[in-house]
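seq:
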Amino acid sequence: MAEAVFHPPRRKRRVFESYESPFPVNVGGKDFRICQAEIINNNVIVRNPEDIEQLYNKGYFGKGILSRSRPVYSISDPSVVTKWQGANVNMPIITSKKYQCHVQWAKSILQEQGFDDCSVTKILENYTKPLELPFLEEDGAEQTPNICNRMGPNTELSRQSSADTGNVAAPSPENQNEGYKKACLEGDPAFDPAAVCGSKEHELGVLKDVAEVSCQKHGRLVHCGCKEKESNEQRSCDMIKLKECAPEYVLVQEEEDGSLCPEDDSAHVQENLVKNEKLVCRRNPFRIFEYLQLSLEEAFFLVYALGCLSIYYGEEPLTILKLWEVFSEVKPNFKTTYMAYHYFRSKGWVPKVGLKYGTDLLLYRKGPPFYHASYSVIAELVDGNFEGSLRRPLSWKSLAGLNRTTVNASKELMLCYLIRPSDMTEKEMSTPECMKRIKVQELIVTRWVSSRERSEQDEL
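struct:
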């Protein structure tokens, strides 16, 4: 048997991020946290934004459920965000048309739940009323305006743009700073700016007074004519909750009534039509969340090998043995694929799911943003004689096709044999401690080219 030749990984041409760390481990007690995940429909999901950033940036674990890899999906319209980049607000900005689509989606869900059209219309009208939310100062510090001290009916963030070209008219220097600090936003005193998202009552359309809901959720209430005094810790806690609830609030770009009008009675009326636009803060009736989805192998590695993740089912955290049992039931070949995953992760590779190329794993150097995958891996559990009930018996035809697919993607096909001792019992396999007795044999499959072999012999 010929010895395999190692080919260096192919670096990607355009890399737009820096390499932080291979693992989210405790190094001197700095920047270490135990993240939380939960099992939903046999999938491991991470919801907390800080946990998502921690796990993906340090080791590239998981993928965004709405993104190709890195969880960066946003409902914001890029063209609208560019137009309003001077307004330093930290919320998604969408067009009125897109917002109406979300309203229609929410309407269809309420109708499926048995509400009549009159009730649905009333629920959505009350839920999508304009309201006021925290915004950002010039230096980026978040500020929460008191809803009691309102700034009048015409304090929405607005600007003028040409009707035919869409160019934005920049605000004057005198009013520019005021535009940042008074950015806002049509509002309704009945709505509290710190209302919590994700309430089941909101989703079902049972909309109570939002100030009372906020009082129950946060343990505080703002009364008219008074100023609320908060400590820095409580305010920072509110800011964290606000970030977690970010998908509930959106800024909708709308046109002001009678905004199209000729300017200065010019001869070219069509060229001088001015369109006044404003950003109105509203609740998002159909919220789209970006979560981090972990494969079963990634989730168990974070729990068992690194100890930086707790996985919950309902409100109960699962132990390592319970996870080993549950994952084995969900995925019959989990033990085999996890042992291969654990082995390659320990060697410094970044394994990802290889379903796209018909294999179990794809091996990356450093991570997918920096290099293309080098190997497509098929894992098999065998005995000392390389015999056993193979998960994927390969015929010559299927092996040739799989190898051809892998080579066309500039990768190499690797067979990873996990050698199990003949005296190992099923009881030992019921715990992850069995990996201590497992040996690994790697085999790289390459296509034999007769002409190339003949030319090499002639040179000798």
